[in-house]
Design goal:
- The chain is globular.
- Strand 18 and strand 19 form a beta hairpin.
- The chain has 3 domains: 202 residues, Rossmann fold (3-Layer(aba) Sandwich), CATH 3.40.50; 156 residues, P-loop containing nucleotide triphosphate hydrolases (Rossmann fold); 74 residues, Alpha-Beta Plaits (2-Layer Sandwich).
- Helix 2 packs parallel to helix 3 and helix 3 crosses helix 4.
- The chain is of the alpha/beta class.
- The longest helix is centred in the N-terminal third of the chain and has 14 residues.
- 37% of the residues lie in helices and 19% in strands.
- The chain has 18 helices and 20 strands.
- Bound molecules: adenosine monophosphate.
- Adenosine monophosphate binds next to helix 3.
Length: 460
C-alpha cells in the first residue's frame, strides 16, 4: 500500500510544510511509487515524463542527503537541454527552501564558464547541467565529483538521442561507485536498458506511463496527399480553432517552412529547433509561454523538456516512425484534467505508422480525410499579448517587481494588462496586452526603471 500524503515519508515536518506551501498537498503517482524507494537509498529507474512530478521525486531524495557543512558537489543532475536544466534548477531551489544554506549551480553551455567556475570554487552542493559543459568543467579541473552521493539522469533517452552516451559514461566514471543513481526516461530503447545494467545497482523500476491519454486526449488522424499537407494543416486550424498549439515536424527546414506558411496565413507561429542561437531559443520560449505567440512549430528534440502548461492541441505535421514518440508528443496536451486534442496528418505511404500507433495504444485510431475539415477562410490566430524586450536584466539588479512597479505606477497600466515577466542576465521580457503596447513603448522613450533609463522594443 502506498499512502499519497507527504507526511507518510521519512522527511522532516519542516520539509513537508515547505511542500505544502508550494501547493504540493498530495504526492503525484510517480512520487508515491518512487519516493519510498528513493528515500531508502535505492537506485531507481523511473518511466515518467515532464509534468508527472518527477523533479520532486529525485529532488526530495537528493536534498535529504546533502550535508550543508561540506562544501563540495554531493548531487549531480544531468539534463539534455539548458531549458530543462533551468527548470530543474528552479524546482530544486523551491524544494530546498526549508533546508538552509544549500547552494546550487547550473552548469550549462551558452553561459559564461568563469561565473560557473566561481560558483564551484565557493562551494556548491548541487550541480545541475548539460553533459557537454559538465565534461568541460571536469577536463579543466574546475569540477570535482568524488563527493557525489546522488547521481540523477533526467530524460536519459533524450540525452542518448543527442549522442551524449560517451560523455555521460565519462562523467559517471568520475563519481564514486557507492552512490545512489536515479534514472528518468520517457521511453526505453535498447541502449537505455543496456546503460541501466552498467550504471545502476539492483534498481527498483517504477512507471506512470500514459495515465490519462484515453480519457482526455481526443486523437484524430487525417489522410492527405503529400502536396496538400500544408493546406490541410491550415484546415486543422480553421476547423478546430485551438488557441494554443504545438506542431511537430521532422526536420529543422520543415519547421521553418511550416512556421512561415502559417504566418503567411495569419496564424502567428514561431519555429524552434537546434539551429537557433541560444538567445533566439530563449526568445521563442519566452513568447510562447507568456502567451504572445499561440503556435510553436518544433522538432522532437527542441520540444523536449519544455514545461508548457495548458496546451490545447498537439498537431503532427508528419507522424513519427516510433509510436512511443507519438504517445510522448501528444502527452503534452490534455494535462491536469483538461481535455486536449491530438491531430495528425498522414499520407497513404505513412499508413503503417498509424497502424503501429494503433497496436501500441491497443485501440483503434480514428481516421478521417482532409475533406471533412470545415473551411473557415477568414480565420486568424493572434496572441492576446505582445512581448517587450528591455535592455536591462539580472546584472542590472532588475527584479520582476521593479518592472511591475514602473508599468503599473508611472506608465499607468493596470496589473491585469501585464503578463509574465522573464528576467535574463542582460535583458528582460515583459508580456503586455496588445492594446497597451504603444503606451508601454511611449513610457520607455523617457521612463525609467530603478532610476535608470531602459530601452524597450517590441519583439517581432
Ligand atoms: P515535473 O514533472 O517535475 O516537471 O513537474 C511538473 C509540475 O508539477 C511542476 O510545476 C511542479 O512544481 C509540480 N508538482 C510536482 N509535484 C507536485 C505535487 N505533489 N503536487 C502539486 N504539484 C506538483
Amino acid at each position: 500500500m502506498t499512502s499519497n500524503s507527504f507526511s507518510s515519508l521519512p522527511i522532516s515536518s519542516a520539509f513537508v510544510a515547505n511542500l505544502d506551501s508550494l501547493g504540493y498537498k498530495k504526492m503525484t503517482a510517480i512520487q508515491a511509487q518512487g519516493l519510498p524507494h528513493v528515500l531508502q537509498g535505492k537506485d531507481l529507474i523511473a518511466k515518467a515524463k515532464t509534468g508527472s512530478g518527477k523533479t520532486a521525486t529525485f529532488g526530495i531524495g537528493l536534498l535529504q542527503k546533502i550535508n550543508p557543512r561540506f562544501f563540495g558537489v554531493q548531487a549531480l543532475v544531468l539534463c539534455p537541454t539548458r531549458e530543462l536544466a533551468d527548470q530543474v534548477g528552479k524546482e530544486l531551489r523551491k524544494l530546498a527552501r526549508s533546508t538552509p544554506n544549500i547552494k546550487l549551480v547550473l552548469l550549462c553551455g551558452g553561459k559564461p564558464f568563469a561565473a560557473q567556475k566561481g560558483s564551484l570554487e565557493h562551494g556548491a552542493h548541487i550541480a545541475v547541467g548539460t553533459p557537454g559543459r559538465i565534461q568541460d568543467h571536469l577536463t579543466r579541473g574546475t569540477l570535482i565529483l568524488t563527493g557525489v552521493n546522488t547521481l540523477v539522469l533526467d530524460e536519459a533517452d533524450r540525452m542518448l538521442d543527442m549522442g551524449f552516451l560517451d560523455v555521460i559514461t565519462e562523467i559517471i566514471a568520475e563519481t564514486p561507485k557507492a552512490r545512489q543513481t536515479l534514472l528518468f526516461s520517457a521511453t526505453y530503447p535498447d541502449l537505455i536498458t543496456k546503460m541501466c545494467r552498467t550504471i545502476l545497482q539492483e534498481p527498483v523500476t517504477v512507471s506512470v506511463e500514459a495515465e490519462h491519454h484515453d480519457t482526455v486526449i481526443e486523437q484524430t488522424f487525417y489522410q492527405v496527399k503529400n502536396q496538400q499537407r500544408k493546406n490541410a494543416l491550415l484546415g486543422l486550424f480553421e476547423h478546430y480553432q485551438p488557441e494554443t498549439a504545438l506542431v511537430f515536424c521532422h526536420t529543422k527546414i520543415q519547421c521553418d517552412e511550416v512556421a512561415r506558411y502559417l504566418q503567411e496565413h495569419q496564424i502567428e507561429a514561431l519555429a524552434i529547433h537546434g539551429d537557433l542561437e541560444q538567445r533566439e531559443r530563449d526568445q521563442v520560449l519566452v513568447r510562447f509561454t507568456n502567451h504572445s505567440c499561440p503556435v510553436l512549430v518544433a522538432t522532437d528534440l527542441a520540444a523536449r523538456g519544455l514545461d508548457i502548461k495548458s496546451l490545447q492541441a498537439v498537431i503532427n505535421f508528419e507522424l513519427p516512425h516510433d509510436p512511443e514518440i507519438y504517445v510522448h508528443r501528444i502527452g503534452r496536451t490534455g494535462r491536469a484534467g483538461e481535455t486536449g486534442i491530438a491531430l495528425s496528418l498522414f499520407t497513404e505511404q505513412e499508413h503503417l505508422r498509424v497502424k503501429a500507433i494503433e497496436t501500441f495504444q491497443n485501440k483503434p485510431s480514428r481516421c478521417d480525410t482532409g475533406e471533412s475539415l470545415q473551411p473557415n477562410p477568414g480565420f486568424t490566430l493572434q496572441a492576446p499579448m505582445v512581448t517587450i524586450q528591455l535592455d536591462s536584466g539580472r546584472k542590472n539588479k532588475i527584479r520582476p517587481g521593479d518592472l511591475l512597479g514602473a508599468l503599473t505606477g508611472d506608465a499607468g497600466l493596470s496589473g491585469s494588462q501585464i503578463g509574465k515577466i522573464d528576467i535574463f542576465d542582460i535583458s528582460s521580457y515583459v508580456a503586455v496586452e496588445r492594446s497597451a503596447l504603444s503606451q508601454v513603448l511611449k513610457y520607455f522613450t523617457n521612463g525609467k526603471v530603478k532610476g535608470r533609463s531602459v530601452r524597450a522594443r517590441k519583439i517581432i
